[in-house]
Write a structure and sequence with these properties.
Layout: H1 2-44, H2 48-99, E1 109-110, H3 124-127, E2 162-165, E3 178-183, E4 219-224
Antiparallel strand pairs: 1-2, 2-3, 3-4
Protein name: Pilus assembly protein
Pfam families: N_methyl
Transmembrane segments: 43-69
Length: 226
Amino acid sequence: MPRFKLLVFANARALLISYEFIDHSKTKKSMNNKLQAKRTHNFFGFTLIELIIAITIVGIIAAIGFLSYSQSQIVARDSKRKQDLQEIAKALQLYYGDFRQFPCTNSWQHSSSTAGTVWITNDTAVCNNTAPSLSSSYISNLPNDPTSNTTGNPTSENVMGYHYWSSACGGIPAGQYYVLATQLENRSDPDRNELKPNRWCDDTLFYGAGATVAFPAYTYTVVGGR
């Protein structure tokens, strides 16, 4: 009888140990699953706050990139404007070499939005001669402003385009002095009229104190004949 009790007790203890081992294994497996799920969340999942932060950062970077691109485009267009006026000035000097005058005007002449248009013409009534317009003999094509060509007075604000003038002024006859002007998009351009003002033929400044007819500060000008 005592031997039977001992056997039962031993079997019961073995069963208990086996149960505890099985239960412990399940608990450990459950913990491992939770840990793995947490790791998966950390590496591959995002909370709502994390998504908002990420989207905000991407938006800021995109906005900075767009502004930088836009500014570079403005600088490029202004560079073309200045280069175009310098090319026109060279053509005017060639013209002057042939006719001893620049194309005369009675008012401002303006670039055209139509490519190939000869927009610098000689007003024969002003100069009383038959000198021609500034044709392809001196410049292959008269350039136009890259964005807008406005037929307004360039001494007014926000009048884009290229503008030419060669009327009598300060005792100088028409055709012996000219002004080329264009307004720049970059109001801080180092070549703007505010920093490098030219002078009218009567020797008054284009900008600032003493200017009789002033251009906007952000105008770029080229003069000839003085």
